[in-house]
Design a protein that fits this description.
The complex is a heterodimer of chains A (about 375) and B (about 325). Chain A is α/β, with parallel strands linked by helices and about 375 residues long. Chain A has 13 helices and 13 strands. Chain B has a two-stranded antiparallel ribbon.
Chain lengths: ~375, ~325
Amino acid sequence: MKLNSFKFRHSLFTGVFFAILSVSMVSCGGGSNGGGSDSTSTDDALIGAGSSFDNPLFSKQFSEYSKTNGLKVNYQSVGSGAGISQLTAKTVDFGASDAPMNGKQDSALSAPAVHIPITAGAVVLSYNLPDVKDTLMLTPGVLADIFLGKITKWSDPAIAAVNKGIKLPSTSIVIAHRSDGSGTSAIFTTYLSKVSEEWNTRVGKGTSVNWPAGLGGKGNEGVSGLIKQTPGCIGYIELAYAIQNNMPYAKLQNKAGNFITPSIASVTAAANIQIPADTKVSLTNTDAADGYPISGFSWVIIYKEQKYGDRTQDRATKLVKLLSWMIHDGQQYSSALYYAPLSSAAVDAGDAVLKTVTFDGKPVLQ
Amino acid sequence: MDTSVETGIPTRSDLPLRVINSSPEAILKAQKRARLSFRQIRTENIFNKTLMLMGLIMVILVLGIFLTLIVQSLPSIKALGPKYLWGEVWDPVQDIYGAWPFLLGTLLSSFLALIISIPFSISVAIFLGEYHPNGWLPNFLKNTVELIAAVPSVIYGFWGLAVLVPLVRTFESHIGVAPIGVGIFSSSLILAVMIIPYAASLGRSMISMVPSHLKEAAYGLGATRWEVIRSVVLPYTKSGLFAGILLSLGRALGETMAVTMVIGNTSLIPKNIFAPGNTMASVIANEFTEADKPVYLSALIELGLVLFLVTVVINMIGKKIIDRFTND
């Protein structure tokens, strides 16, 4: 009996030990989303994480860059929010995001960070209307009313008024939106918030919102799956995805009143505007007369002061040179992958930001 | 001595005397044997302790997960309070989180799936356990049913989206509901297929374990096969069958990938079983990566906690029911 109780106590101790271990793991996990080991200093490769939208372009750019400079870049396509979390936890050299950091994310950082516009993309409205051969045209007001669930039939006079000469069916409109949190949703809802006061107050903008109507699909492929399958369906997807999969997409009226077909050129045009010094500008509802209104930058985010942790001057220089190459020479790979090359205004703004990046107080780029 | 050699029968004097041998070799031998049995005891103890440790690790793991969920959902519990459970709006933009639509979606789709799957799983169990326990066709059927459990759920999702959803859409347009295709009903159908093997295999092994003398007695009294199944086999195995059904319900509650592909993923409260909805597991899977605000992330984790508790409660109720069945 005595032996038994000793054994029991012994195992109790083991149990308590593991319990404490698990609790301490819990509290560690609470602090930082990224967790994991600090891999920045283990080998020579730069590490980035974030936007999945940027991933195909980055893969191409990094492989081209390593051919000439021998620099390896390891990019984890985990999503914009997760990329920012990992930058906050300092487990990566750079984060990539389709939306600029918001106030709460900014305040979570231990040191100021800078945004460098790296590429631009667009969100298009794809639809499934088998009998309609012409390209559908939409105005911001009609679009907002469709997604608010106020226009429910394709034969609605408001749609007919914009699409003169197109015979629209009387089928119900089925709305498809993203079910997963995504930068695509953020750009789209930011646009709707700008053009519709009702959308702004009722729904707002964000990577995930409370959709007033419609079905959710996971990822671009989920939304396009719904569009392809459901007659009368309309949904928003990335331009590149729509082009690659031959999906029809609507012309949209921009701020200047022109109906714009989304294309690489019209997205680059949308970015040809006055860009503020911090480059955190939304291209949605652009002022540019020939710009497609639902466009947006994607940014690379790095710390302004590169000396943190055990980072070396060499690593900081490599990073900044890589980014500089990406916004200049690296842009030649954009069009083939259906990304919009940066406008000259955006490249200039990016250059200016990179010049402010320092190591131990001294500018990295001389 | 001599006589014994001649007759070949040993006499008393031939038997070796039982004396305690105190020669050094003998002591060494005895010590060796003692060491050996000590080692056996030690092995026994180590084995015992290993088993105990493994068991403990499992308990600690579950407790650790539970603790993690509680600790990480504290911010959301503090900010939203119990209203979280019956709140009907899930609005990440304004930081309003209510789990009710997803709780409803989870329970609705899982129980509907259970209702659809029960006739199939019980039939398969009776067919394999009672009618045809052996032979190539029953074996083939048995393996097929087990294969259903082995297919990854994303494949069910694809199949559901490509085959089932268009069929459901046609069906919906015939009965006069909005022909969307995706929705609670479609996800219940997919779930029903996925959970059949759990109840079926457990039911089959339970039914094949019914003592044959009970069945033979019933046959002896002139019962038909149907009567034997109804009044001997099913009453004898009801707790096992119920346990299988419970197991499949647990699977349905937590299924994520296949459901999220066909349920329609909307935060609106489903108006009927054909309407699109969402489940707790699929909301977590969808929104976790881009949950960019602390309260948002915490609200998603609290959703996980609710799912955990729902599963625990349903299991406990099930255990109670099983106990009652087996006691009478």
